[in-house]
Amino acid sequence: MRIGELSRRTGVPVPTIKYYVREGLLPPGELSSPNQARYDETHERRLRLIRALLDVGGLKVAAIAEVLQAVEEPDRPLHKILGTAADRLGPRHGETEDEAQSEARDTVSELIARRGWRVDTDYPAAADLAHALAALDRLGHGAFAELLDDYADAAEQVARADLDYVDRRVAVEDLVETAVIGTVLGEAMFNALRRLAHVDRSARRFGAPEHEADEPEEADRAEGTDGADGSGGSDGADGSDG
Amino acid sequence: MRIGELSRRTGVPVPTIKYYVREGLLPPGELSSPNQARYDETHERRLRLIRALLDVGGLKVAAIAEVLQAVEEPDRPLHKILGTAADRLGPRHGETEDEAQSEARDTVSELIARRGWRVDTDYPAAADLAHALAALDRLGHGAFAELLDDYADAAEQVARADLDYVDRRVAVEDLVETAVIGTVLGEAMFNALRRLAHVDRSARRFGAPEHEADEPEEADRAEGTDGADGSGGSDGADGSDG
DNA sequence: GTGGATGGATAGTGGCGCTATCCGCTATCT
DNA sequence: AGATAGCGGATAGCGCCACTATCCATCCAC
């Protein structure tokens, strides 16, 4: 297909596609003439991946370029690429050599050791965690770190589910791409779920009594009852809480 | 104290503090003269909160302004404010009335109903979740949604821990601020933990052999040294999935 | 009473994700 | 063959955002 159709199929404007090619996110089309290029489904797929990483995952264009370059090389060990992807997710923060900071780093090291995780202490995600803990500490909420093991339990659960999924898919699709997608979109998914669970629990605890009650005081949520019935064909995958 | 000391204590440049005041993130200092203002610990605290929300939480300045305005009003029900905070966390996405989109919305509704969560289906976090699911679907990973209940279990666990913490702190500190901090920084914390858990599990599964080996086979993050193979051997041509 | 800090206001900067425009070429329709 | 639409490639510009620089009149400390 040509660029116009690629644009139509994906909803991405043509100049934007050109921009992605320029930035190295998308491989250029195969030239059939000096100024005529062809694109195929791999481009379409890649383009959708880019948009997902961008819109849902919140990655920056430069970060996506790095991740996708890693995806291109199947030689590298998976956990490295996963790291590359995940590392680009976190916020980039300058060095703030604080007391809270070094203390937080120790806490992270202890946690990693305690759980027997096979990760380096200087892993970017570890630094992110330390940053969060340090910020908590500076805000007088160092006690929030007491929840670390609860959080880690949940994180392990999720990670297990993710890897199981990757395992299941490994033969079918590109392993690395699957892992990237799972890492990035899974994060967005979990964050949304956590926010929903927060609202639910705080409604239960502070808001309404047992019976359903919707405060009419500020019902600016409006009602969004979409008439579509269409029972989904989802199987009853019961959550096996373990 | 005056603005200079506030700056020194927090590490935030004076012009930036002025900027925050202009943007409504930080209340102005108390004027003792027409052009002389005093700041106190509440300002310092607020400033640290702003930086945490900005650097660690990744919120935008405008979003922080909204959240903090909600924090100022203790009348509003907590779960509303929590919602306000959480809603500003997610990515803003335009309307992409897709098939995947509406299908995803249904999936979300079912999930909420299935778990008995007291949240509206059109809650922003629900929309975020639907967006993530729709993106997954478009990428051919609709099956990832099978993990939803696993994810939701973990999310509930985390939310329970968070609310317990808020409960514990409620008498001591400002409730709403605590909730905001927990929501935002907790998210950063969990995401980092999840990435660490990912690396751990994928190292176990794809990297090192089963027995616990403290010594990593590749201690450095540097790429290039991928001589060690034996795992994978996935040379398969790129996704000829169609 | 002098010099440096302060408050307040306005304008400018740099990064980022696009977007607009231009040019010469090419595929396709008639 | 000629008209017309689209294309590839390159460059410049836009809009948003989080600051940052400058200016000026005032104030406080020494």
Automatic annotation (TrEMBL), chains A, B:
InterPro entries: DNA-bd_dom_put_sf, MerR-type_HTH_dom, MerR_fam. Pfam families: MerR_1. Residues 205-242 are annotated as: Disordered. The keyword DNA-binding applies. The keyword DNA-binding applies. Keywords: DNA-binding. Residues 227-236 have a biased composition (Gly residues). Transmembrane segments: none annotated. Residues 1-70 form the HTH merR-type domain. SUPFAM superfamilies: Putative DNA-binding domain. This is MerR family transcriptional regulator. It comes from Streptomyces solicavernae. The lineage of its organism: Bacteria, Bacillati, Actinomycetota, Actinomycetes, Kitasatosporales.
